[in-house]
Amino acid sequence: NSEPAPFNEYEFPLDSNWEIPRNTLILGATLGEGAFGRVVMAEVNNSIVAVKMVKEGHTDDDIASLVREMEVMKIIGKHINIINLLGCCSQNGPLYVIVEFAPHGNLKDFLNKNRPIKDYDKEGNLSPPEHHLTEKHLISFAFQIARGMEYLASRRCIHRDLAARNVLVSDDYVMKIADFGLARDIQDTDYYRKNTNGRLPIKWMAPESLQEKFYDSQSDVWSYGILLWEIMTFGAQPYPTIMSAEELYSYLMSGQRMEKPAKCSLNIYMLMRQCWHFDGNARPTFSEIVENLDKLLLSNE
Ligand code: ACK
User: Which is it for strands 126-127 and 119-120: parallel, antiparallel or unpaired?
Assistant: First the structure.
């Protein structure tokens, strides 16, 4: 004599500051699926939003992670260079966490798509692509991400997985840091495995994170340096020949670092190298990075 399954699997406390009536939300296409959740495009009050939810076959832990992510976003507050929380549907049905929609997808794919391609005309001359990204665009991307990270760091938020794949591109080339509210189980050995795209997330990790699983804002700065390298290479793979965490750690221990990308000014490369100081305290803070890039942008005008 089994009980019928309840319609609502879970109950959440109502937070009237954020609750959006479920019937005002029109769900659309799935944008993608992450480790524990799904992101769906939706419309609410004539604007496009992104909705985070758990997948079928989720566990209680998956629900708890989504709730935690939402609560972290509430506490952190708004900034132009992060994906902001817009609201939620938490009553009488599955939990929907409603966030800003970024129409141009993740920064890595965006950079790959906008890679400068050599276009030869009939005479065999090189012609510039119609709307190509200039160095100034690239530095502005880096500046905006540093601003978002400066804000997160000021709110005591450590990202732990800052990479171009976790930055989303909004209209007018506005950069928005995503997934900063995710609780990352850093004890999880899966973190050292290749992700679904075959990338090793270890390549963004600071030595102290690789070695001792230690994370703070200064280890985020290391990852920011790798992200800066991704920007200046239009989304290339860092350390293409390195295959394991052990190999990466000894490479870094011996003082080796990635070379200056071909189309990268010395100023920006110097900033990358500062972010890759073995000692976290010797790396610049996000505020210092913002200041540095602000000056570079002004001098580039
Ligand atoms: O990397 P993507 O193209 O961008 O694929 C993932 C997928 O959903 C699963 O996370 C995309 N995505 C996540 N959040 C948003 C958002 N707020 N706006 C647009 N796309 C998003 C993400």
Answer: antiparallel
- Cα separation, 141 vs 174, in Å, equals 8
Instruction: Check if the beta carbon of residue 98 is closer than 8 Å to that of residue 87.
Output: yes
Q: Which of 15, 61, 161, 220 is catalytic?
A: 161
- Here the ipTM equals 0.96
Give residue 48's Cα distance to chain centre: 20
Dihedral pair phi/psi, residue 281, rounded to 5° = -70, -20
Distance CA 85, CA 70 (A): 8
What is the per-residue pLDDT across 148-165, written as a single tens digit (0 to 9) for each? 999 999 999 999 999 999
**Residue with the nearest Cα to atom 9 of ligand 1?**
32
Ligand 1 atom closest to the Cα of residue 31 is: 8
Integer Cα distance of 54 and 72 in angstroms: 17
pLDDT digit string, tens, across residues 19-55: 999 999 999 999 998 767 899 999 999 999 999 999 9
Atom 8 of ligand 1, nearest CA residue: 32
- How far is Cα 167 from Cα 263, in angstroms, rounded to an integer? 22
Judge whether 268 and 296 are in contact, CB under 8 Å.
yes
What's the rounded Cα separation, in Å, for the pair 165 and 185? 19
The CA-based dihedral angle spanning residues 170, 230, 180, 271, taken in that order and rounded to the nearest 10 degrees: -110
Within 90-162, strands assigned E span: 96-100, 119-120, 126-127
Question: Nearest CA to 49 among 96, 10, 93?
Answer: 96
- The finding on whether 167 has its CB within 6 A of some atom of ligand 1 is no
Q: Assess whether 60 carries a catalytic annotation.
A: no
Q: Which of 6, 42, 9, 38 is nearest to 27 (CA)?
A: 42
- Which atom belonging to ligand 1 lies closest to the Cα atom of 178? 14
